[in-house]
Design goal:
The chain has 87 residues and is mainly alpha-helical. It has four helices and no strands. Helices cover 74% and strands 0% of the residues. The termini are far apart.
Length: 87
C-alpha cells in the first residue's frame, strides 16, 4: 500500500488480505481432499498401476490432485485394454 493511506483503507486492505489468505487455505485443503477422493475411486489394479508410475511418489508427497488426474489420464489412454472391461 502507498504511504498516504487512511485508517479506513488500511482496515479494508487487512480485511481483503485476510479473506484472500483464508480462500487460499480452503483451496489447498479442497485440492488435498480431491486427491484422496480420486485415489479412493480407483480399484486396486488401477491404484497399483498409478502407484508404479515414475511420477507418483512426488505427486503423493505433495498430494497434488491435478498431477494425480494427469497420471490417471495418461494410464487410461496409454494402457492396453483388459478383456471384459468396456471403455
Amino acid at each position: 500500500m502507498p504511504n498516504n493511506h487512511t485508517a479506513c483503507k488500511k482496515l479494508a486492505w487487512d480485511y481483503h488480505m485476510g479473506k484472500l489468505i483464508n480462500t487460499e487455505r480452503v483451496l489447498k485443503a479442497n485440492l488435498r481432499n480431491l486427491f484422496i477422493v480420486l485415489m479412493s475411486q480407483c480399484d486396486s489394479d488401477m491404484k497399483d498401476q498409478v502407484k508404479n508410475m515414475s511420477k507418483y511418489s512426488g505427486t503423493e508427497k505433495k498430494m497434488d490432485s491435478m498431477g494425480c488426474m494427469a497420471l490417471i489420464k495418461k494410464m487410461i489412454y496409454t494402457s492396453v485394454p483388459t478383456p471384459g472391461i468396456i471403455r
